[in-house]
Amino acid sequence: MDKSEIIKKVAPCSLMCHTCSAYNDGIICASAKTLLKYLEGIKEFYEVHMPDAVESYNNFEGVLSIYAGASCSGCRSTEHNGCSIEGCFLLECTKNHGVDFCGECNEFPCKKNAGNF
């Protein structure tokens, strides 16, 4: 795999995009969609046979729906819709330092990103 392919799949912080819960083409989003499909009709079953479990199921389905609705196309994409990590500054920082990844920066590790690594 050449560096351009790596850059598409790995965030500046070195997070593998496909493992991120916000990534719309990732394993978490795909798994949530698959599980929601397999669970079709289960709520109705619970309503009849396990009414005490309906509230828990609704909460579970709600969380799955959030993961299934992931909207990020990767940090470096023009459609990344914001980082899933609140306050993330690493994409801007790597651009400002002319590197693709934090670990390539001459200042790494720095005080600014100490809490991230």
Which tags fit this structure?
single chain, 117 residues, mainly alpha
3D structure, described in words:
The chain has 117 residues and is mainly alpha-helical. The protein has one domain (3-116). The chain has helices at residues 3-9, 27-38, 42-49, 54-68, 90-97. Helix 2 crosses helix 4. It is elongated. The model has no long low-confidence stretch (mean pLDDT 89).
Total DSSP E strands: 0
Q: Helix count?
A: 5
Name the average pLDDT.
89
Strand content: under 5%
- Write the element-wise H/E pattern from the N-terminal end onward: HHHHH
The gyration radius over C-alpha positions equals 19 Å
What level of helicity do the residues show?
A: 40-55%
Number of domains: 1
User: Ranges with pLDDT <50 over ≥5 residues?
Assistant: none
Task: Determine the N-to-C terminus distance.
Answer: 25 Å
How many strands, what sense, and barrel or not for the largest sheet? none
Shape field: elongated
Concise synopsis of the structure shown:
With 117 residues, the protein is mainly alpha-helical. The chain contains five helices and no strands. It starts with a helix and ends in a 20-residue tail after the last helix.
